[in-house]
Amino acid sequence: MAKAKVTFEDIEQTVNVPAGTRVIEVSEKIGAGIIYGCREGDCGTCMMHVTDGWNNLTEPSVLEEKILKENMASRHDRLACQAQVLGDCTVKPA
Amino acid sequence: MNGDIDVSRHCNAVEFADGVYWIGALDPTLRTFDIILSTANGTTYNAYLIRGSEGVAVVDTVKENFSDEFFARLESEVDYSEIKVIVLNHLEPDHTGALPELMRRAPQAKLHISQRATSMLKALLKPSSDAFAYTTVNTGDRVSLGDRTLSFLHTPFLHWPDTQCTYLEEEGILFSGDVFGCHYCDKRLFNDRVGDFRFSFDYYYAHIMRPFKKHVIDALKLIEPLTLKQIAPTHGPILRERPRRYVTHYRELSTSSLTREIGSDDHSLVIFYMSSYGNTARMAEEISEGAGGVAGVRVSIYDLEGGETEPFVDLIEEADALLFGSPTINGDAVKPVWDLLSSLAVVNLKGKIGGAFGSFGWSGEAVRMIEDRMRGLKMHIPHEGMRVKLIPTEEELDECRSFGRRIAEVLIGKRRERAVIDFAYLV
Ligand SMILES: Cc1cc2nc3c(=O)[nH]c(=O)nc-3n(C[C@H](O)[C@H](O)[C@H](O)COP(=O)(O)O)c2cc1C
Ligand code: FES
Ligand SMILES: [Fe+2]
Ligand SMILES: [Fe+2]
Fold first, then answer.
1. What are phi and psi of B17, to 5 degrees?
2. Whether residue B357 has its Cβ less than 6 Å from ligand 1
3. Residues B155 and B123 in one domain
4. Long-range contacts of B303-310 (CB under 8 A, 24+ apart)
5. Which residue segment(s) compose the domain that B345 sits in?
6. Residues B343, B232 share a domain
7. pTM for this structure?
8. Ligand 1, atom 19: closest residue by C-alpha
9. Phi, psi at residue B265, to the nearest 5°?
10. So what's the pLDDT on residue B1?
11. pLDDT for the residue numbered B37
12. In a mutational test of the pocket of ligand 2, which residue from A25, A45, A69, A84 has the highest number of ligand atoms less than 8 Å from its CB?
């Protein structure tokens, strides 16, 4: 299966993951600083900032776009419970 | 003025600045609020009315079962058709209970809420929400009532993500929402008339605002530059006598005192342990030795047997790293450890460094369980905990020192685990 590297900037840790893995699955296991609430794309708690490889995450759904907007996301912010890793990227808590 | 205020004896609006009225409700018998808060003398749900030359604004409403009192006070002063603006500083049901009915009676009024409140509005007011016209406002946005102007301050997380404050420019009144509030019910309504509410004010801060200190400081940056003649919160007395004292007090409560003690360059690492035969205690001492040897790290060590939860919570709030030591007793960590770990809802632990250690006899579950709990509290666990079977050997004590040192190095940012891990190896 295709692999990708996701780097958590706050704890300076990189993890090799199978393509399609959700960021939440990885960040929770290694104890990165992104925090979670509902875990289903509704509360906006898990907002993260993508510092590198913005295009290597799955496109945000209409619902995610809406929650991002409501939470005043800046450019290149995503919900970690929704975004799936497709290629190398670097993220940190928003 | 107001020498004989007693709002429990009537259901009229109470004017406290030119054209500005309190139209809230008293709830003197309430003893528990939101499950976590107790109050020895009830609370108030404060709502306000502002009359401008070109329309009326209502700021917040009350809890649903207090609607009658709210509507009676409102009707004593205005007609529903005059209401042009409804501001919701916070959508919790204690302030939006009367909203659906108010919207029904004043359908022309436009809701002014924060951006983050929009999804809550729908979730809170489910069936009736479709018809609500609202506009979202942010810091700097203003709405005019003719000779009166309301401006908005984006102050999220001063209880919920949606919270905001509203400022009446011409009168210098800040409608602050839950901020600067307290659960204190007094029919005399104003801070210079009511009983001694200092305890309630601090208690409320400690339970509602403290977990969000960072947000409090952000909000204070917006509030402090304002000319403040009065502060009108959603609970407790209206602060009309020297309101700035309360702003200063919030500033003090939100500022770290440890930084002043040890200086902002030092990092604080606190070790808590419990030990029946002294094995876990030995480990704690050696870990402390190891960590304390790293320049820039100040170690404090506490035996949980000799302390109470409350002051320990204070220590934890200001610590940069926390280590918990517990023997395994009946397959679990000991109760004082859990007591402390379950009392941390009032502090923000996100990103603090954590670790666990302990002696055990045969199964040794305690260390892993503590680590899991710390992860649940959003702490970062950089190193797997130290477990020692029964009495630690010299070699194991060496390892304890090394464990302490490694944690301390992560703390000062010297040691970074840069290696790429494979997802499959993460458990
Ligand atoms: C009542 C009791 C129950 C215990 N239960 C367990 C257990 O379930 N699993 C285990 O690994 N050790 C168990 N132990 C052993 C202790 O963890 C062990 O003696 C340890 O070294 C005590 O460390 P301390 O001196 O720091 O208290 C138990 C000990 C006692 C006295
Ligand atoms: S955790 Fe709630 S949106 Fe991701
Ligand atoms: Fe609230
Ligand atoms: Fe409230």
1. -160, 170
2. no
3. yes
4. B303/B273, B303/B274, B303/B275, B304/B272, B304/B273, B304/B274, B304/B334, B304/B336, B304/B337, B304/B340, B305/B274, B305/B336, B309/B339, B309/B340, B309/B343, B310/B343
5. 259-411
6. no
7. 0.76
8. B361
9. -80, -30
10. 47
11. 84
12. A45
With an 8 Å Cβ cutoff, is A15 touching chain B? yes
pLDDT in tens, B308-359: 888 899 889 989 999 999 999 999 999 999 999 999 988 888 879 999 999 9
- Which percentage of chain B shows pLDDT scores above 70? 94
In this structure, is residue B426 part of a structural domain? no
Residue B302, in any domain of the structure: yes
Average per-residue pLDDT for chain A: 91
Q: A9: which chain B residues are within 8 Å (Cβ-Cβ)?
A: none
B383-426 pLDDT, tens per residue?
A: 889 999 999 999 999 999 999 999 999 998 865 545 577 787 67
pLDDT at residue number B4: 76
Alpha helices by DSSP H, B225-296:
244-254, 258-262, 279-292
Q: What's B287's domain CATH number?
A: 3.40.50.360
DSSP string, B26-51: EETT--EETTTEE-TT-EEE--EEEE
Say if ligand 2 is within 6 A of residue A45 CB: yes
Q: Does B42 touch chain A (CB under 8 A)?
A: no
**For residue B375, which residues of chain A lie inside 8 Å, CB to CB?**
28, 31
Query: Are residue B205 and residue B296 in the same domain, yes or no?
Result: no
Do both B227 and B266 map to the same domain? no
Domain membership of residue B427 (yes or no) is no
Could you give the ipTM of this predicted complex? 0.78
- CATH code assigned to A3-87: 3.10.20.30
Task: Answer yes or no: do B234 and B273 share one domain.
Answer: no
Calculate mean pLDDT across residues A28-52: 87
Please write the tens of the pLDDT for every residue from B172-193: 999 999 999 999 999 999 999 9
Q: Is the CB of A6 under 6 A from ligand 2?
A: no
B416 touches chain A (CB under 8 A): yes
Residue of higher predicted confidence among B151 and B349? B151
Please tell me the total count of domains within chain B: 2
Task: Answer whether residue B421 is part of any domain.
Answer: no
Q: For residues B239 and B95, state if they share a domain.
A: yes
Please state, in angstroms and rounded to a whole number, the distance separating the CA atoms of residues B26 and B45: 7
CA dihedral B162, B163, B169, B170 (to 10 degrees): 110
